[in-house]
Amino acid sequence: MGVKKVSVPTSIPLDDSYFLAEYRDAMTEAQIKLADEQFTAVQKAKSLRSPAKALSIVLEHDSLITNLSRIYSIRKALIQCVLMRELCTEGADDTVADGLVI
Fold first, then answer.
1. Residue 5's pLDDT is what?
2. C-alpha distances in angstroms, 78 versus 29, 72, 81, 94, 98?
3. What span, in angstroms and rounded, lies between the C-alpha atoms of 48 and 85?
4. Cβ(86)–Cβ(96) under 8 Å?
5. More confident residue, 98 or 33
6. Which residues have C-beta within 8 Å of that of residue 1, sequence separation ≥ 6?
């Protein structure tokens, strides 16, 4: 009963590529609009950084994110989305809450 052996692929080629700087302005505008639509007033008020700054951090680490995406066969967009959301919604209260975790 059950699975006796699981075959894990060691390499899945991904077509994720490095971010092209020529799209930076359009990307920033789109992301700021999305953040404004999706985040609540409380999330916006408690955030340590603006969506533009969060996006800037994500794009500054583009080559690292792209390489990690390829190494671990995880879509680059998945890594970027989580990072962007965390950077946009991180607040001073997160440090306190993290300190309470045992």
1. 72
2. 20, 12, 5, 22, 23
3. 12
4. no
5. 33
6. none
Find the helix or strand (DSSP H, E) in which 96 lies: helix 92-100
Tokens of residue 61, six digits: 């680490």
- Estimate to the nearest angstrom the gap between the alpha carbon of 44 and the chain centroid: 17
Summarised one tens digit per residue, pLDDT across range 7-42 is: 655 555 666 888 888 888 998 899 889 988 999 999
Region of 17 (left: φ > 0; alpha: ψ -120 to 50; beta: rest) is beta
pLDDT digit string, tens, across residues 70-82 = 888 899 999 999 9
Alpha carbons 102 and 92: distance in angstroms, whole number: 19
In a 3-state reduction of DSSP, which class is residue 80?
helix
